[in-house]
Amino acid sequence: MDCPHALPFEYRVRIFRELVKEDRRAAGYGAQAGGADANPADLGQRVRPVAEITIRRDLLLEDALAQIPRLGDAIRGRLAVRYVNAAGGDEAGIDAGGLFKELVSDVLAAGFDPSRGVFASAPSDGALYPCSDAGDTREGLEIVELMGTMTGKALYEGILAEANLAHFFSKALLGAPRTIDDLPSLDPELHRSLIQVLRYDGDVERDLALDWTVEESKFGAVAAFELRPNGANVPVTSDNRMAYVHAVADFYLNARRARANDAFARGLSRCAHPGWLRLFETHELSLLLCGCRDDWDVEDLRTHARYSGGYDKSSKSVAMFWSAVRSMDAAQRRALLKFTTGSTRPPVQGFKHLHPPFTIHKVVGEHGAFAAFGFGADVARLPSASTCFNTLKLPNYRRSSTMREKLRYALAEGKGFELS
User: Fold this and answer.
1) First CA to last CA across the chain, in angstroms?
2) Sign, Cα dihedral of 262, 265, 270, 273
3) Is 290 in the active site?
4) What is the pTM for the complete model shown?
5) Taking CA atoms, which of 18, 32, 239, 377 is between 20 and 30 Å from 327?
6) Residue 143 burial (CB count, 10 A)
7) Which of 131, 271, 290, 388 is catalytic?
C-alpha cells in the first residue's frame, strides 16, 4: 500500500486485523482465548493450546522469561495460562481468556516498571522507553526482548495494554528517522541545552569549552563516548556547532539505544510484522496498543451492554448501577473497566468492538423484605467479575447507597481471580 495514512484510521485498524487473521490461518494456529478473533460461541476455549504457561505471582517475570521466549513463532498460537498462588496451589479461575489477558497485563507491568532499571518513563507523560544501558547486559536485553514479544502478542490478539510508548521510541519501531526534533520526548532539558548552544552569540569555543564527547553513567562509573574520531581533542566552534548538536541528538536517540531498540523490535516482530505496523503513524501506534487515553463514555458502554441471569436494561438494580457509574470520577471508571475487562481503556473504536460484549449478570442475594425502603439488611455480597467474558456479576442490591458502597469496595480491593 503506497499511501496507507491517506485512509481513515479505523479502516487501517480493520486492515491490520485482517492481516493478523490471514497470518494465523496460514500458520495453522487457532485464535487466542480472550483475543479479538476468538470464536464468539466458545471464546476460543476449544482451540488446542500451543503451550501452557505457569506463573508464580512472586516470580512473575522470571517465570515468563523462562517459558515465553522459547516458544519462538508459536507465540502466535493460543496460550493457556495457569497462575499459582503463594501456597503453591492453582488460583481459582478457568482460563477462557481472562487469565491470558492478566498475564499480558502483569508481565508488561513488571517489565516496564522503571524501578527495575530496564525501562524508564518520561516525567511529563509517563511514556516508556528502554534505558540507555538496557542493551549493555544479557539480562537487560532478554527483558527488553520479552517486553517486545508481549507487546506484539497484545497487538496480534487485539488486547489493550497499559504501555504508552515514548514518541521517539515508537518512531524507532516504525523505522522512521529520529532527529533533534524528537529529543524532547526523551530529554527535554538536553534539548533545551543544545538549542542554547545553537543560539549562543558569544565565542562558542572559548566560552562553552565543549568537545566532541558525551559522558554517561555506566555501571556506577562515568564513561565518555566520542562523537567523532579523536573527539576529545576536537573543540566545538561556531562553525561546527550545528553538526555537534545533531551528533549529540543522534547519539542519545539512536546509537546509544540501538541494541535495546533492536531487541524490542525483534520480540515485537514475532507477532506483529513490521510492515503491518507501518500502516500507522507514531501516535496511532500507541492508540492501537493502549486504546483511547481519555475518560471513557458511560453511555457508549451502556448502549452496547448486554444482560443475563434475569437482568434486563429496565431492571432496578441495573438502573442503580448505571447511576452509580455516572457518579464515579475518571479514576473509578478506569478501575471498573479494569475489574471487568482487564484493561482500564476502551477499545480503539469504542465499546461496539469489545469482544465479548460487556455483560451484567444477575447474582441473587438475600436481603430484608423492606430493604428497598431503607429498612433491614441489604444484600451483603460484593460484585465480582469474569474478565474472560467481560462480565460483571452484580448482586441484586435494593438500595442505591449499597450499590455505590459495594462497588467502591470491590474496585478498591478486587485483584486477580481469588476474589471472584
Assistant:
1) 47
2) negative
3) no
4) 0.83
5) 377
6) 27
7) 388
Amino acid identity at 211: D
Helices in 80-137 by DSSP H: which ranges?
98-112
10 Å Cβ neighbour count for 87? 6
Average pLDDT over residues 346-375: 73
Which residue, chain included where needed, has cell 479479538? 36
* Residue 172 phi, psi (nearest 5): -65, -40
Report whether 159 contacts 34 (CB < 8 A).
yes
d(CA 155, CA 282): 15
What DSSP line would sit under 134-191, residue for residue? GGGSHHHHHHHHHHHHHHHHHHHHT---S--B-HHHHHHHTT----GGGGGGT-HHHH
| DSSP letter, residue 77 | S
Rounded CA-CA distance 404/417 in Å is 22
- Per-residue pLDDT tens over the stretch 18-61: 999 999 999 999 888 878 888 776 666 778 889 999 999 889 99
d(CA 21, CA 73): 15
- Cβ-proximal residues to 169 (8 Å cutoff; 6+ apart), any chain: 127, 128, 129, 130, 261
Nearest to 16 by CA among 353, 261, 323: 353
Find where cell 504457561 sits. Answer: 53
- Residue of 261, 282, 122, 254 lying closest to 188 (CA atoms): 122
Residue bearing cell 499511501: 3
Cell of 262: 533492536
Judging by DSSP bridges, how do beta strands 221-226 and 213-218 pair with one another? antiparallel
The CA distance from 134 to 116, in Å, is 11
Backbone angles phi, psi at 222, to 5 degrees: -85, 125
Q: Are 66 and 75 a contacting pair, CB within 8 Å?
A: no
DSSP 54: E
- Mean pLDDT lowest among 78-92, 222-236, 262-276, 369-383: 369-383
Q: Rounded distance, CA 195 to CA 180, Å?
A: 9
| Strand 51-56 versus strand 79-84 pairing type | parallel
